[in-house]
Amino acid sequence: MIRSPLMTIMTDAVLKAARSLKRDFGEVENLQVSRKGPGDFVSAADHKAEQILRDMLSKARPDYGLVMEEAGIVEGRDRSHRWHIDPLDGTTNFLHGLPQFSISVGLERDGQIVAGVIYNPALDEMFLAEKGKGAYLNNRRMRVAARREMVDALVVCGLPHVGRGSHPRFLRELSAVMGAVGGLRRLGSAALDLAYVACGRVDAFWERDLNSWDMAAGIVIVREAGGFVSDAEGGADPIATRSIACGNEVLHRELVALLKAANR
Fold first, then answer.
1. Which backbone phi and psi does 251 adopt, to 5 degrees?
2. pTM over 0.90, yes/no
3. Spatial strand order in the sheet of 140-141
4. Which pLDDT band, with edges at 50, 70 and 90, does 38 fall under?
5. What is the average pLDDT score of the chain?
6. 92/135: higher pLDDT
7. N or C: which end of the chain has fewer CB within 10 A?
8. pLDDT at 33
């Protein structure tokens, strides 16, 4: 693991927020049968976890800015640093009692993401990285998978749901990728999708219409695990274009080529 003051701040905040989410996740099954439904409860769980993260990170670094899914942007006196916070990535999975959700916190310094933590409370798996110090799953160093043929690759993606994203574009991309790869999955948490590329569980990932808090932590984690990250067109700034593609050097290149071909 990385034993730095910065990583201690981030992991302590994430673990405290995770305790709150785990308690709430344990109540989801009971809420499924309630007349009102679990939507309001999950929203409250989301806000509560975000407040814990905000409080702890702001206490440790009071001058840093924050970019948060629920509370929006808070400008800090230190204009060089911003936290990107997603307190519950995979809300729909959480809502249905599926243990595939995560907390994601990334740190931006002078426009570059330099540290990230992604934690799945249900499985007690923490993925983390700090620029120049490698990437780790709990206490084990991570590396992206070494497969070099798309036909052998397991690829994950995001699906545009109702009211979000371009469905025709996604169907073109899905058709192009589906016909070239060994397997295709939709798991429901972009942050965990990135973490799974970093640790080699899956070989590549792409998604569009993401926000900075969905992918900030994952970007540095994949890169520190030896992976390549770009936007879906191969550009250098996924956060600016709100799309992402990643994998090892070979499969990242192949994936971007498939996506480009699908949209010509």
1. -75, -30
2. yes
3. 72-74, 64-68, 78-89, 102-109, 112-120, 125-130, 135-137, 140-141
4. low
5. 94
6. 135
7. C
8. 42
Q: How far is CA 43 from CA 158, 177, 251, in A?
A: 22, 34, 37
Q: What SS3 string covers the chain? A: CCCCHHHHHHHHHHHHHHHHHHHHHCCHHHHCCCCCCCHHHHHHHHHHHHHHHHHHHHHHCCCEEEEECCCEEECCCEEEEEEEEEEEECHHHHHCCCCCCEEEEEEEECCEEEEEEEEECCCCEEEEEECCCCEEECCEECCCCCCCCHHHCEEEECCCCCCCCCHHHHHHHHHHHHCCCCEEECCCCHHHHHHHHHHCCCCEEEEECCCHHHHHHHHHHHHHCCCEEECCCCCCCHHHHCEEEEECHHHHHHHHHHHHHHCC
Interval 65-82: pLDDT, tens = 999 988 999 999 999 999
Q: For residue 102, what are its two tokens?
A: 């995560």
| pLDDT tens digits, 121-142 | 999 999 999 999 999 999 999 9
